[in-house]
Design goal:
By secondary structure, this protein is mainly α. It contains eleven helices and no strands. α10 runs antiparallel to α11. The radius of gyration is 18 Å and the shape is globular. The mean pLDDT is 76.
């Protein structure tokens, strides 16, 4: 009963946040206390109704690149820990059964088995992988919590730094923004190359 209630509350939260998503984005643009800003950033990370890259950019615009990045990094790391715990301790069995039916996860599962810490970092770096899926997968697979959290914190830094920087500087310093994007692409390419299977001689 408790699990169904929590699921209902979570789904209701997503629906409510989706309905008022534009109001939330407008609210972010205003000046608020650190506590409220952190809470809002965490809520939007838990309830993925708005692309979080847009949220990071708005925080970068509203608070400056450094402060905006710090708030979003702390918020997304906290949200990842909360979702990991919820899946692991409340829905691990069902989550594992579902993951077993997704063939696309086979290669990622193999990579996690070989190098779990690095795999989580790379999953955080990849812009096309839903971050909520990474949290759920880690909880369902029972990855060590502190290892997961450390890899999450490290892997989130480049992307959050980039979008917070773009939010605060893309119009004022377009050349610097282009350079930041180039550096981010290089980091992604290097990370991808590092995971390629090495040929045995």
């Amino acid at each position: 009963m408790r699990k169904w209630l929590l699921t209902l509350i979570y789904v209701s939260g997503i629906i409510t946040a989706f309905i008022y998503r534009y109001e939330l984005l407008d609210w972010i643009r205003q000046d608020h206390s650190l506590f409220l800003s952190m809470g809002t950033a965490t809520l939007l990370a838990l309830l993925p109704v708005v692309p979080y890259k847009a949220v990071i950019s708005l925080f970068g615009y509203a608070y400056g690149s450094l402060a905006g990045a710090a708030i979003c990094w702390a918020a997304t790391t906290l949200a990842a820990a909360m979702m990991y715990g919820g899946v692991k301790y409340l829905f691990q069995g069902k989550a594992r059964a579902y993951l077993a039916t997704v063939p696309a996860l086979d290669k990622f599962t193999e990579a996690v088995d070989r190098r779990p810490f690095v795999s989580v970092i790379l999953a955080r770096l990849a812009p096309f992988i839903p971050q909520a899926a990474v949290n759920a997968y880690a909880g369902a697979a029972g990855l060590p919590f502190w290892s997961f959290l450390a890899a999450t914190g490290i892997g989130k830094i480049p992307g959050i730094a980039l979008f917070a920087f773009l939010g605060g500087n893309i119009f004022q310093h377009p050349k610097s923004a282009a350079a930041a994007i180039f550096i981010y692409v290089v980091i992604l390419a290097a990370a991808g190359m590092s995971m390629r299977p090495q040929k045995r001689g």
